[in-house]
Amino acid sequence: MPRYPLVHPPPPSPAEIEATKRRRALKRWRPKGPFAFFSLPFELRQYVLSILLVQESVVDLEPTNHRMIGKPLQLLLVSKRMHEEAYKIFYSRNTFRLFPVHRDFFKTEDILLTRLPPRYRAEITKLDLRLGPHWADPPRCWTLGYGQARGGRNRDKSGLEDCVSLRQLKVFVEVDPSHPIFNGWRVDERFYTDFCGGILKRICVLAPNLEGIEFDGWESVKLDGPLMRELRWEARVAGKKITYGLERGWDEEARRLSEAASTIHTPGQVPMKALENAVDAISLQA
Length: 286
Hints:
This protein has helices spanning 14-28, 42-53, 65-68, 80-93, 118-121, 191-206, 226-237, 251-264, 271-285, and strands spanning 95-97, 126-131, 146-148, 154-156, 168-173, 212-217, 241-244.
């Protein structure tokens, strides 16, 4: 057999030698004691806590909460200082659902806000309102009203008055039961429309610091339908800034309706009547 000359690999470069030393040192390193988390700068601590506590989905009453958010919230039990920094991040940077949509909590008398202490509610900045589930018979916990408090005075039972940092409300509409396809299944044509409009009106009254409302919905929900007209009307009356989410993409349609309403408006008409005329005109053109 032919003999081949031995080929030696080239010697490692100084950078490769240094990288190998670092890897070996890391393998041998063991922590000597507890990590001094509070020795980090405040901004870095906030960044680390946000990675652990900010959820990708809306926080709601769910049977799986003990697995999904229970473990991260154990940070609040580490120490008083950790609790003061962690709870503000969790409640200010997550979105919380106002009314439960899981069927296991339809019969509950306490919504998510009422289960939280006032100091936690005061940090909430974003709420989510899901409209459509159980539209034929809304759960009894889907109410916003006043109850008797200590001293004989009335107090908001939902806890919304304590949400002094609330700035954004996201309203997602799953279905509009006023559509003729629901004839025979609903209480009457205006029942759910008036019900949802009343909820949004109460939210605007109980949360005076609320600045904007974002509307979104499934493809079957029409921006010029009775339910969305009622919701947008209540938002305008309350003086809230209206925006639209990415799921439905209503921005262009809302601009078209607004332009049509401005051209059809006549003296003496209220804005809502002019908008209804615009919707009728667009429907005839289509």
